[in-house]
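Task: complex structure prediction.
Instruction: return structure tokens for all chains below.
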Amino acid sequence: MHLRRRRQVTTAGLAVCAVALAACSSSSSSSSSSSTSAGTTSAPAAASSSANLSGTLNGSGSTFQTVFQQSAIAAFRSVDSGITVNYGAGGSGKGRTDLASDVVNFAGSDSPIPAADVPLFKGKTVLYFPVIIGPITMAYNLSGVSNLKLNPTVIANIFQGKITKWNDPAIASLNSGVSLPSTPITIAVRSDSSGTTQNFTLFLKDAVPSVWTLGSSSTVKWPSTARAGMGNPGVAQIVKSTSGAIGYVDYATAKASGLSFASVQNSSGAYVAPSPASASAAADGATVAANLTFAAAWASGASAYPITYQSWDLVYAQQASASDAALLKAYLGYLLGPGQQLLGNLGYAPLPSSLDQKAVAQLSQITG
Amino acid sequence: MSTVTRVDPAGPAGSTRSLSQRRPLGDRSFQILALACGLLVLVILVLIAVTTSQQASSWFSAEGFKIFTNNWSPGANQFGALAFIYGTAITAVIAIIMSVPVSVGIALLLTEVVPHRWARPIVYVVDLLAVVPSVVWGLWGILVFAPWLQKIYTDIAGGVNGVPVLGPLFGQPVSGASFFTAGIILAFMITPIVTSLSREVIATVPAIDKEGAYALGATRWEMIRGAVWPHSQGGVVGAVLLGLGRAMGETIAVALVIGSSPEITSHLFAPGYNLPAGIANLFGEASGEFRAALMGMGVLLFVLTIIINVVARGIVERNARRKRGA
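Output:
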């Protein structure tokens, strides 16, 4: 009896080992086969410099970039089938940590490396490649009101719980001729930490520093009346299902969910609706530093949409090998070149050409 | 469960000697394999504890005892985690208050009321609750249950408005997502474990005690109160603590339904936060001291659940031993 049970246990144990071994061998064989097949497949004559490249690039970070990265990776495969690119969306913070601990080749980040994290990179030069621009909409749910106008002061007061009714005089004075209901305002915010929150609050902090007291960071202590949703779709869901709700939702999600969104007053005093064009205009008006960091939020320009954000791919200037450097140049070159044309359809905005050219020029600083 | 631990060391150990004479190599390698598996768990636990503490060290050193303040403002680099600890405690207590009477009731039903052959399907159904994945609880909670609860919350809040004690506890809800909703979902989730542990403890009550109570003319309820309860009290408390440990560590279901607002309020229908949900929700974009703070909250949670689990196991085991001895 005992003996039989014992034997069963041993066989089970052996089976587990066998499965584990099989898994190991199959994964190793699959990876080796992929590299060999990559070596033998000749890439289409798209970019002569990358014709003989093969290998794998891993990236992680910004969830804002996810949709763009996925589309770009799929499109890039047809250009250069030898290069496999993987992108894991774990958030900008995770991307930067992953890059610092050398587990990825590039990191997607919606904000420059914060001062506290600089030591993690051990003095190595990190290059910033801006790849994507996007507007953050003020999405709202008010039946009968289709053309709402808001300015930064009003937005700050709404999101600090100081304006609580839609027919508040502060809102009414910006929307003459619109009959605003007395519906209470429900503010919808992110429950997770997010680059969207970071850049939305950055806009408020830059535009109305004396009114906005909650600071700018990836998560903010909202008034207790705020309703929190997970991700852009979560906030969109709250706005869509709640009469009188207003939330900050990225343009792609707001469009996909069919939400109405407000025109927002920019730094030149004009009311601008969010769109890929007005977001590119904002990036064009932003002051770009030598390392290509900038903030598109509250940028200058008459046609700039003020709540615009951006995301970078971060890579080390000094790569471990010449082949890694070449792979990165090929992929980033694609993102900055043909990849930019994918953005409009996805609900994001391409880089303004002046910025794009600077980023392309910076590719030469990646060395192996 | 207690019977298993009792039989195991005695059984195989006895047959090991006779077996090793016949198949020494296979037996020894199996022993080593088994030992390695056991040690692996320990090593992983220690590694988790060490690395998370390391990553959290800058939070502990920068804030000191300020980690236990209610000053949570990532923008200003202030990370007092009291609101998260408070939310963890409140949701777990709500879950325990709701789940324990039901769980003990089911356990008594299974052991004392229904015939043996009917007990099995009931156990099966209760255990099915434990099979539902956490994220399914969360999604059901936020999409179906919370909107439904919101109406009830609104009615309750209207009813108790101005009443002392109840008024401040049950105020107007912001949405269906709140401490209370999280507590209810947790109650569903911990009911299977509390039920099955209570049932095992209650099953150890000697039949002779129960028959004795009946012989003295006790009704079934009096028998349960006089014979079953004193015997199983300690074990049930242990079961409840294990449920508490589970409720405190539950992450994704809570993250979806708790409302995600680090507030300390008496108001149970208000959105809140707990430690695991905070870590899960906020980790993605965290960096620097923010990240260290989340790691540190993980360490706090780890230590808390370990303490609760050890105490609970201790109580359950001591009780089982005492009962066997009796």
